[in-house]
Amino acid sequence: MVRRAAEEIGERVSCDARYIGRVEAGEIRCPNYAYERVFRHMFPGRTLTDLGFVPRSAVRGRAARRPPHETRRETQETDRKTQETDRPYRSPAVQVPAQTPYHPHEDHEDHKDDEESDVLRRAFMTRGGVTVAAASLGPLGLAFDTPAAHRPVHRADARDADAVEEAVRRIRLLDDRHGADSLYRRAAAPLRAAYALLDAGATRQATADRLYSGVGELAISVGWLAHDSGRFDDARSHYAEALATARMTGDPALEAHAFCNTAFLARDAGRPREAVRAAQAAQRVGRGLGSARLMSLLALREAGGWAGLADRAGCEQALARAQALYERGPSDADPEWMSFYGEAELEGLEAQCWSALGDWSRAARHARRAAQLQDPHFARNIALYTAELADDLARGGQPDEAAAAGMRVLDLLGQVQSSRVQTMLAGTARVLLPHRRESGVSAFLERHADTLRAV
């Protein structure tokens, strides 16, 4: 495919399986000029960063300028040029070039999220610019910013359904590790591409069913990114799209998921009664799915709504039901999207309930346990639970411990971008202001202020 595209524009590249493997593995940070021209021909209007590569200026340490007298011989010496510019990839967590320091809060339209770049590279190298690629972020290999009349005719097949499902998994993986703020803008493109696939139709009914389910889950995933980054109106719209898709196709699993997230959003947006009703609707739909863990999570969503209404009895009843259902254990019927829901999340959501009810010591106990139990993979959740702990300790009259917990959250903000976590930490800082003369609190407040200035 690459060699054929090169021939169309008169380039010669020795692209083979080994080169493709190096691109997919991230060994090639930036292609040489010959490959760049080929890729730009294959993907009109796309930049190198759109395709998952690092900008050439970051590789060479200065803006790339090509002399006007560049010769044909230079463009044909692909293998030699590859050695010059196709340098091994290094993650910022391991090594950052001195000329391109890593700033966690920079605009992530750039190349800071290296795992995302890996996914984009695999996407376009695997499937090309005509069909959907199995990518988590980026445009799923489709240039749907062009008018509909100019798009290639393509009826979705099983590989496209696979790609949409893989996109959902990858977005969730990146969100677990990095939070939503740096991902939301980019996640809109694969969702548009997925909706376009629905419009194009599918080759088989089984494929169409998978696509509708996958697109609904993708809408929920993108909605969650909006939710976690404080874009509540956007999140509500995405969740409503997923719910409409579920209703149209008679998909109870997708409907339960959409109602579940709608309940969570309503609680965070200050609409606790809506949270209760959405959670109860989710439970009505979810009863026939055979997953006790799903019903446990939905009971927790209801408990959060009751806590927001200051209904302690209703909250306690829902919490007891959630705990009993959780103790039934996992099953094959548990939805794939619930991989985040373990004992740590159970503890964390209960902590939020007690916090809403003003029982700070009880909330802090559950938040501390949640942070201790959480798998290190879920860096965003560790930051969230620790921020919850810091706030509960601060409001419960333990400023030194709250400041120490706040410091741990600040340590995590280098890899986690979540407006929800940052908002919680800002609230904790305000509560601790009267205690700023204490050394631990003072250090936390100063560092928190420095972090805000750096954003």
TrEMBL record:
InterPro entries: TPR-like_helical_dom_sf. Residues 67-89 have a biased composition (Basic and acidic residues). It comes from the Bacteria. Residues 59-117 are annotated as: Disordered. This is Tetratricopeptide repeat protein. It comes from Streptomyces thermoalcalitolerans. The lineage of its organism: Bacteria, Bacillati, Actinomycetota, Actinomycetes, Kitasatosporales.
